[in-house]
Design goal:
The protein is built from five helices and five strands. It is an alpha+beta fold. The longest helix has 7 residues.
């Protein structure tokens, strides 16, 4: 898959805290770091997958998803798949 094409459809947000707060926003959802709360995404009906232990966007793509919102599950996003696989399903 052409990750350059995927990159064009992503909004990358980084906030430098004790550990970076990272969010990759795809057209139909977000891949977030552990700062993001899945239960809040469930309440607002958002597609959200969470990866943890990451310090960069490249690490987010490689990391395994540890939590998903209900709407993410409806898109076929599963705990244990890579962040990149989750992003692909959010396109």
């Amino acid at each position: 898959m052409d990750t350059g094409a995927i990159q064009e459809h992503l909004e990358l947000l980084q906030f430098d805290l004790a550990r970076p707060l990272l969010v990759m926003k795809a057209p139909n959802g977000i891949l977030g770091c552990g700062y993001i709360n899945v239960e809040t995404c469930n309440k607002t009906g958002e597609v959200c997958a969470i990866v943890t232990g990451v310090n960069s966007f490249n690490e987010m793509r490689k990391a395994k998803v540890v939590a998903t919102s209900n709407k993410a599950v409806e898109l076929g996003i599963q705990v244990g798949e890579s962040g990149q696989d989750a992003l692909d399903k959010m396109r």
